[in-house]
Design a protein that fits this description.
alpha+beta; four-stranded mixed β-sheet; three-stranded antiparallel β-sheet; single chain
Length: 150
């Protein structure tokens, strides 16, 4: 798609609900809130994806901009500094949706998917609820490099 014909799709993103310890090399690993994956809306997820990540539907970026949301932070010397550049702080989600429960989201033994309901009996398929609109990207996604929301 060229700039004269932009495409602003609705996308599904997975954000981490787990902090992973840094590697011995000093490289960071994903942290809670980091954007782990982006895809076009799909019918479901696997068991590990539903346990370790919270799935959201978002809109408001051009299609090519979505692909950058899984970028790493690269130092001026070309070394990868941080596993993920972009994140969605759970506190920001709570601001947007006061019913969102951060403690439930972080509870290790619980699967909590408040935005895309999962049918566990039928193989982790998403059940779309009428009236559930995608979250707007503006002011939701934090850029760790610039220390600003996009």
């Amino acid at each position: 798609m060229g700039t004269l014909n932009p495409n602003y799709p609705i996308m599904e993103i997975a954000i981490s609900l787990v902090n992973y310890s840094p590697l011995e090399s000093g490289h960071e690993r994903s942290l809670v809130g980091d954007i782990i994956g982006i895809r076009k809306p799909n019918i479901g997820v696997g068991r590990k994806e539903v346990e370790n990540y919270m799935w959201l539907r978002i809109e408001g970026l051009e299609e090519m901009e979505f692909s950058r949301l899984t970028d790493s932070i690269i130092t001026s010397a070309g070394e990868r500094y941080d596993k993920r550049r972009y994140c969605i702080p759970l506190e920001k989600i709570k601001e947007i949706n006061p019913e969102f429960d951060i403690d439930l989201a972080l509870e290790e033994d619980r699967i909590y998917q408040p935005f895309l309901i999962v049918d566990y009996d039928e193989g982790y398929y998403f059940v779309l609820e009428d009236g559930k609109l995608p979250l707007q990207v503006s002011g939701l996604i934090f850029d760790k490099e610039t220390q600003e929301y996009i």
